[in-house]
Write a structure and sequence with these properties.
Elements: H1 3-17, E1 30-31, H2 53-61, E2 63-67, H3 71-75, H4 96-105, E3 110-116, H5 145-155, E4 159-164, H6 177-193, E5 200-202, H7 220-230, E6 235-238, E7 244-246, E8 261-262, H8 275-283, E9 290-291, E10 294-299, H9 317-326, E11 332-337, H10 348-364, E12 374-381, E13 384-403, E14 412-420, E15 426-431, E16 438-457, E17 465-469
Parallel strand pairs: 2-3, 2-11, 3-4, 4-5, 5-6, 6-7, 7-10, 10-11
Antiparallel strand pairs: 1-12, 8-9, 12-13, 13-16, 13-17, 14-15, 14-16
Helix pairs in contact: 1-2, 4-5, 6-7, 9-10
Length: 472
């Protein structure tokens, strides 16, 4: 693939996401569409990392649903030990379409299924082990949950993703490094060749003992190379990447400073720990040499698998909205785990919270108070600029929505926002990185004009789009 071809694909990816708004020129007032960035040549030739078309599309999805379902669902555990009887896996009313319908209605664009968790039980009929759905009573031993999941995603217009745990507490080859690496590659090959296009391939660094008491040495370069060969358009997630990094916690909170660039030497392989590693995962690196945006994973419940005792502990709709602000609103993507119950259905309490979240987000972002206003963009230095925005009419604003055109890279390192209702300017917000999206909740204030001042950037900043919304 040539450089020119990559540039064409990036431009096409931007165009697909934008409305047909003409490019904004410095200091020239323009009408703002509700969700639009200018198109056209960059002010300067970028030298920093930029997203691939797959990474850009991945982040624009904003919301993905994690589906933790498997043997642990029926043993009421979080981590199985691999000794479970496959006959224990017996959902009574499994309906992957219900999962996908719920996700789509709540505004999710993708789903990721735990095809195999640490206990080693495989949700597809695999040639690598008898510890799979083929040995269970579900569908008379003829079932393939990965197939049902992928088909359900496509039927509802969602992008399917798969998680294959590298740790396997059941397989006798685990700990016999060359032998198990062959097994793991065979499992991954089955998943990536039987089910069509896979949007995201999800790994972690879990590395405990196997049934023989030995630890495994994973061959990550081989694993990543296999995914590249079999699913070249998929993004790979793990602590380290290589395409998407973990945000460093399971609380649903990305860093208030969050660069999509990292230094690959900080986290060369999944599973590393330490203060410097966690800082890099959570906040990225201003001077990073590769593009690895962060994914923020968190569960809707205290646990990752369904437990009946937690049915009254599901996160509320308001809590889910807060997670949206601390993940998507901090230049990340939210991967929200919603575990099916023993029936094989998403529980009614989880569905209600998801529906409530969607209703609240739709109401909050229903009307951009800046739409129809005029904007002037003026570079003030090599790494600074000012955006002045005049609303079509005075309004009380409680939420600011700032966005950079990240197809051209991430540039803003520090900004302040001031507002005026005809008198003196008043500081209403300030922050560091913007990236794909930065959502700022501010004390509701009546304003007619806003001014975003980029005080520091790593390259000449591009036009920053600003949306304004009521807090209620």
């Amino acid at each position: 693939m040539t450089i020119d071809r990559r540039e064409f694909l990036r431009a096409a990816a931007i165009g697909a996401a934008l409305t047909g708004v003409p490019g904004l020129r410095a200091a020239a007032p323009q009408r703002l569409a509700p969700i639009a960035w200018p198109r056209g040549a960059a002010a300067s030739q970028p030298t920093r990392p930029r997203p691939t078309p797959s990474q850009l599309a991945w982040q624009q999805d904003e919301l993905a649903m994690f589906i933790h379902f498997g043997m642990n669902t029926f043993t009421d555990r979080e981590w199985g030990d691999g000794t479970e009887d496959p006959r224990t896996f017996a959902p009574t009313a499994l309906d992957a379409r219900q999962w996908a319908r719920t996700a789509r209605a709540a505004g999710f664009k993708a789903m990721v299924l735990t095809a195999k968790h640490h206990d080693g039980f495989c949700l597809w009929p695999t040639a690598t082990t008898r510890h799979s759905v083929a040995s269970s009573p579900w569908r008379g031993g003829q079932g393939d949950l990965v197939r049902e999941f992928v088909d359900a995603c496509r039927a509802e217009g969602l992008k399917p993703g798969l998680y294959l745990s590298p740790w396997d507490r059941n397989h006798p080859a685990y700990g016999d490094t060359p032998r198990y690496n062959d097994v793991y590659e065979a499992q991954l090959t089955e998943l990536l060749t039987r089910y069509g296009a896979i949007h995201e391939v999800w790994f972690d660094g879990a590395n405990g003992e196997g049934p023989n008491g030995r630890r495994q040495v994973y061959d990550w370069p081989r694993t990543w190379g296999l995914v590249r060969r079999l699913q070249p358009d998929a993004v790979m997630f793990s602590d380290a990447g290589p395409d998407v990094r973990w945000i460093g916690n399971e609380r649903g909170v990305a860093g208030t400073t969050n660069w999509s660039t990292v230094d690959p030497a900080i986290v060369p392989v999944p599973g590393l720990s330490g203060d410097e590693v966690m800082r890099s995962l959570t906040s990225g690196d201003r001077d990073g040499t590769v593009w690895r945006p962060g994914e923020t994973d968190v569960s809707i419940r205290p646990g990752w698998f369904h437990h009946p005792a937690e049915d009254a502990k599901v996160r509320s709709a308001d809590d889910l909205v807060d997670l949206y602000f601390t993940s998507v609103g901090r230049n990340s993507k939210l991967l929200l785990n919603v575990p099916p119950d023993r029936r094989g259905l998403l529980h009614e309490a989880d569905v209600a919270s998801l529906q409530g979240m969607r209703a609240k987000l739709d109401a909050l972002f229903a009307r951009d108070l800046a739409a129809g206003g005029s904007a002037a963009w003026r570079p003030t230095g090599a790494r600074s600029a000012v955006l002045t925005l005049e609303l079509p009419e005075a309004a009380t604003v409680g939420v600011l929505d700032l966005r950079e055109p990240i197809a051209l890279g991430q540039r803003v390192a520090r900004y302040v926002v001031d507002a005026s209702d005809g008198g003196a300017w008043r500081r209403v917000a300030q922050g560091t990185t913007i990236g794909y999206r930065r959502l700022e909740r501010i004390a509701p204030v009546r304003m007619r004009r806003l001014r975003v001042t980029i005080t520091d950037a790593v390259e000449p900043p591009e036009f920053v789009r600003l949306g304004c919304f009521s807090a209620s």
